[in-house]
């Protein structure tokens, strides 16, 4: 199996895209699915956002599979412009609609809030009003126009499986020596 890096240009116009439950479904790219959200931070809430990052990291130490339903590859949070703006980048294996519904279900089931509550305009009723959650995300989404994958179209589960096979093979070869 040859793995060849690939890039895909994503058109600015979305009229031609399939319509999902919550709007256009962006195509899967060599980097899988994802979105970038940029929003204004509520005054005085930057430290709460940083604190939420620590809380999430600690929760993942206790339960590494906490975010597994989201099928994430990567998650990146950035505060910028003197902590007045927040960027959320997620790369995942499901489409936008499923990711959003899974995120709401995950946080509701776990009884935790979302970092987005610290952002201007985020709906207070997001746990019971997925449409408002989606509206916020769509309004603050900054679509990429090109995405590249060194190992294109490979899911996080496939990557983890390959790493397990590699580890098992290395261990077997070590035992033969």
TrEMBL record:
Superkingdom classification of source: Bacteria
Protein's recorded name: Uncharacterized protein
């Amino acid at each position: 199996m040859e793995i060849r890096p690939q890039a895909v240009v994503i058109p600015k116009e979305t009229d031609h895209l399939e319509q999902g439950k919550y709007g256009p479904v962006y195509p899967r790219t060599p980097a899988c699915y994802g979105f970038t959200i940029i929003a204004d931070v509520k005054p005085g809430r930057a430290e709460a956002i940083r604190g939420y990052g620590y809380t999430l990291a600690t929760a993942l130490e206790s339960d590494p599979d906490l975010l597994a339903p989201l099928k994430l590859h990567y998650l990146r949070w950035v505060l910028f412009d003197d902590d007045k703006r927040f960027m959320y980048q997620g790369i995942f294996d499901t489409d936008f609609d499923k990711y959003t519904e899974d995120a709401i279900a995950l946080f509701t089931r776990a009884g935790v809030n979302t970092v987005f509550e610290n952002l201007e305009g985020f709906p207070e009723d997001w746990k019971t009003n997925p449409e408002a959650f989606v509206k916020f995300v769509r309004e603050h989404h900054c679509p990429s126009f090109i995405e590249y994958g060194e190992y294109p179209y490979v899911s996080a589960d496939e990557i983890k499986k390959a790493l397990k096979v590699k580890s098992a093979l290395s261990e077997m070869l070590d035992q033969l020596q």
